[in-house]
Input
Amino acid sequence: MGRTSSFLLFALALTGAAPALAAWQPQKPIEFVATAGPGGGTDNIARAVQNIITKYKLTDQPIVVVNKAGGSGAEGYVYGKASAGDPYKVIFGTSNAWQQPLVSKVAFNYTDLTPIAAMAQDEFLLWVKQDSPYKTAADYLKAAVTGDFKMGGAQSKDTDEVLTRMIEKAGHVKLTYIPFKSGAEAAVQLAGGHIDSHVNNPSESLGQWRGGTQRPLCAFSPKRLPQGAKITATEGWSDVPTCVEQGLDIAQYEQPRTVWLPGKVTPEQAAFYVDLMKKVQATPEWKDYIEKSSQIDTFLTGAEFDKFIKEDIEHLRQVASEQGWLIK
Amino acid sequence: MDNLGELLHGFTIAVTVPHLALMVVGVLLGILVGVLPGLGAPNGVSLLLPLTFGMQPVSAIILLSSMYWGALFGGSVTSILFNIPGEPSSVATTFDGYPMARDGRPTTALATAFGSAAFGALVGVILITFLASWVAQVALAFGPAEYFAVYFLAFASFVGMGGAAPIKTVVALAIGFAIAAIGIDTVSGSVRLTMGIDELVKGVNFVVAVMGLFGIGELLVAVEEEFHARAVSSKIEWREVFRAIGRLPRHSVALLRSAAIGCWMGITPGGPTAASFMSYGIARRFSRRGRYFGTGEVEGIISPETADHAAGTSALLPMLSLGIPGSATAAVMMGGLMIWGLNPGPMLFVDQKDFVWGLIASMYVGNIVAVVLVLLTVPVFAALMRIPFVIIAPLIVIICVVGAYSVSNSYLDVVMMLGFGIVGYLFKKLFYPLAPLVLAIVIGDKAEDAFRQSMLMSKGSLGIFFANKLVTSLVVGGIALLLLPLVLQLARLFRKPEPPTTETTSQEKVII
Output
């Protein structure tokens, strides 16, 4: 009797444990591939996730972060494509994953990768030099009618230039877009008065705003940014009006931070990482990272993520075809 | 002197037992990553970064910047002993450092390099101390046109003074520009010259090119010419270390000129690499023994090393005051600053006085610590030259292969590195100069971006390069440097065919 019951218990335990046993677990070190150089936004998120996983021991395996920033991040995606079937490479990127293949002959497409999640959204703002006369986006647009305005941004035919073209269309103006290597470079050029504006993310120009070399006119967001600590003596992110409030009709423009596995991995392997990222997102350290980098906390995965990508591509394709950027 | 008071306060923060200990640890680790293949300062700093999260920001930055100093010094070691520059900025050091070391004077070469590097760094720190606010303003005046003008000046000063046949210099430059163009183009966003190799979209990494061109290329030449082990009589000579340092003041003109070039290129965004090349080029023209450059001249080591460190040090200022990282290492440190809760930018000097001045004071102390430690290691490193060639040659191959692979864990890089080795060998055999090739690979791409950005801004008018005093003087200076050899040659023709003496008359003239 005693034996049977213990056997039963054992069997029960087995069946109970069975799903857990079947779930995939990593057996060797995991590589996080950041498609940006050290210090860039994508690098920061990869390292933040690494730190959280290590701190809470969310997996037994060690994690190393590798930077593959060449070709505006294409290096990292190509590497992901070449690693098909390898569940030990996690690629951190942006909307570049589907945007770059649209406008440039890079040797990958987002369909070569397995989408895991979009974990945070970076906002965009319209920035001008501190001592420029424009108080609102409307002032700016009125002055830009001359066609002499120079807009700086990171890279060519990328998020910044797409937004610039959207501003041209919505504001009925013509801007000269000057591509720099990074948003940080554009910010310095604005501080020196070499360009008239840029559309940096909050974290890219936070120091410059606080230092009084440039200020945001409006945010490309449906509602004002969440309240946080004051940046300057009097203002914080929530004090920046939305662009729609100011008569620049672009209600929403955001850059997702995306996470991918190489192609041809099993659904169990993908599920492990979706789950892992969910656990990361539940920690206070993650909230802290989001707040410090002034991003929005989101978590899109599965069908939702897929829908987001499709919609974004649709929109990009429209802008790109108007500008004659589409390849082929 | 407001700044002086702040600096003294900074010293009270930097000169404490725990901070001095951190400096020693940082410098030693730095020398290690500088000497080891493929690690280098940016990787070393990013490996160390997570350890600093629990520290006070001042302590953390002292540790990281000491590591940076150590790595800069360590990087020169491999350039001099094995002809393998670990950082772009120490390429110019190989031109005379390596011949001198091969000549049986590794101790002299290393000690000279370290001594002049320390001098350059010191001048850079002094500049930061007294001209902080002014310097920050200068950097802001640089738009794309000014950037291009600075790169143009660097090219002109080096190319116009090259020793090789001008046409060969132009060929080398052209090949360098083509290599720099590989990958994604910043201005148009399109992929260029990848030749069907998907991975080439990342472009050619500088380390890969240089390890092949210099390390492997030199090795091939050596194998062919002197396979029998060369006898380098290097006893461990402590006295020679001090003698080499003692001889430095004799080259005070070269030291001061190179420091001035270095500071200027550090503040303007030219950076340490352009500075060291430019300084070497100008030294070759104006040094009394310029004709012997490339064969192991002392001033050929002093000029690039002093300028490199002066520029490297003064380049930290734009990072702190403007938030522009001047180098990969500075970019990693900036990431650190943000994690410690500090925001680089103009307000740092107002909000975080302790931090900023503690850091500046630590630069003085840290550099002294670094130079003392590194001089102590000279005899040890110099002893490496006694190892027979048959043992050292495979080691060099290993260093180059591991170094190239560790850039981005890619086999393609190893293959490219070996390819560059063959290119380096051919260049040497056919008397083509390597320096313009390397200069074009390193800053060709930046110069191109700056030029095209300027053209976008001016809607295609070249007038933008003469639009204000700053850019006009830079461009005119560049053109003058380019034409100088031509003019001198003409002058020589008009006088009489006795070339060497005419050159030395222009000795003291310093252009800038």
Notes: Chain B touches chain A through 49 residues (CB under 8 Å). Chain B has 22 helices and two strands.
